[in-house]
Fold these 4 entries.
Entry 1:
Amino acid sequence: MDRNKEILKFCPNFYKIIDFTPYEDDKISDKLIKLYQKYIFKIDVNNPEDVESVKRLDKVISKYIDDYMFRKEMQKQILTIKVQRDAKDLLKEIIKSILKIFDNYEEYTTRVIYISRWI
């Protein structure tokens, strides 16, 4: 099987993400989509850690496209990403930071709902 087709099996939102057209002055969305494309086609399909990160990245970028509040938060947080100078794989470090931003967003925006019992 072709390597790219095999990678696309892990990315159900690929075409939705690629077809997304951001606003003219939105440079961050354009760069984020290019990072997504570059990263998913660079991974090793035999490495389960890479496959899992691609699945998560696909979910995160899809959420970025669908959720306006998350998009604004991501655009604000992505400007603060810092990568160490001695990083071996710069792209992988940036993707890890993006996934961390998503995890923080999910953690702080998800409300805990308690079910009360009436006596």
Entry 2:
Amino acid sequence: MAHTKKGGSENTSPAELCHADADDVTRHSFRGPVTETEHITATIAGQRHTVADIGSHGIGVLLAEGTALVPGQTHDFTLTLGSETLRLQGVVRHVTKDDAANAFHCGIQLLNPDHETEQRLQKFVLRQRHHLFTKPPA
């Protein structure tokens, strides 16, 4: 069962949870966008979610219809990066409405990954940044 620090119920809808002010969410590292062709998913509480952005300290996922993740909850989850699967733990930091995606965006801070997992994730993030910030040849 998920732990909830802010007293939310697991039956609370994403719309009810969409209350985070900008002052409540502080990101301490860069998270780069994930393209549809990269096949990156997170399976949290038995449900697979599309990863919208990823960094070395956290991920952003798009919540499926009817899914409620509550800020303050801690979850064990799997992150699938193409053919590679990482087992992680993270805490839900925010759930906000993403009108462009017609979904809810959920930010998850990673908690204490082991050294090998951290290195594998960092290697992936560095490749992502290289592709994102490298200009195509003229």
Entry 3:
Amino acid sequence: MDVLKVSGPHNIQDVDNAPRLPGLYAWYARFNVAEADWSAEFAGGDAAAQRNLLKALREHAWKFGRQAMPVQAHSNFSTVWNGTLREDPDAKWHAGTADNSTAGFDERLQASIDSDLSRRALVGLLDTGLPLFCSPLYLGKAAEQTLQQRLRQHAARYLRLWERYLEDRDLPERLANPKDFAERAIKLGFSPDDLSCFTLSVDIETLGGMEPDTLSALIAAAEWLFNRWTTPILGRQ
């Protein structure tokens, strides 16, 4: 058996399939759509299929906003300016330059969704590209517990909040300073269908002779480096 093993994707509602070993995990947002979102036959025509897919792509894209950033500036006479900067998603995805050199969201995608063949291919590219071409939403470690146990904690917390959100659509607005993965995911609008994770487990028995404290230190070091290399949008420390 290999010492290191990649596992996934595991949807947030199926984390019981995660390894019962220590290691690292990373959450990703999957673009998960049904055939009715791109097929002319199921959508009721080619124009409707194009509208459906563009709508699904827009809704997914707008979830990838950065967390709000508290700022403090100091001026003369000990004056202090406090505030919170929030990302404007329209600036990222829409035309916003003075010379209009950046095409808007729909215009940039229109040529790639003009037929069932191209729409199917685009959806396939976006699905197959996970996680190879995707930055993680959140990256963490399970050192003193198994990956399955840690991911169960994530799932339980998130799914409780999701149930609250289904009854109270204003919940994200009240999460002014979301404190964990679950609250940040709800704040940005990620649904259970969006969230899948991959794991990298470590089989300590196969390593042979490594002390648990050393393994924990290795996992913590890798997590620290990966977080700073990838800066996941739902991470904090």
Entry 4:
Amino acid sequence: MNQETRDLLDSFSDIIRQLTVLTGQLSQVEEAKAEAASEKRHELLDGFIQKEQAQLLKLRGLEQHRMKLAKNLGWDSLTFRQILDRADSQQREVLLPLFTELEQQLNRLIQSRKASEHIINVRIHEIETLIALQEGSSYAPSRSVSVSAPSRPKMKDTYG
């Protein structure tokens, strides 16, 4: 492998490491969001969402850099599996553990995101139900609020 290819591979490997770290950080934010929502600490969610947005911007920049390096290495538009298939033994030795670790972090992120989304949707459902009950509307199990006549009459102060 010539020096230029080695330098490109080193840069590519560094980007994969950075993507792995950032993916782990995104997972932590998702897990924190899920915890905050499950503890009904909704005031914390805005901070987590802002942090997540900054991380996603950084992720996009890293991904663009990764794609540019992949193109320079002759791996334009290839998946990680395809890159490993085309890489020589030295490259494969470097890349396999990096891709494996990144894949693990991506799977963690997917699971964290699903859990966070589920818990937040449950909280939204609870809030919608409370609002409907406070307004005197009935709430259908299909998660739709009926704004027609309430299912029970509103209480009136008959002593006043």
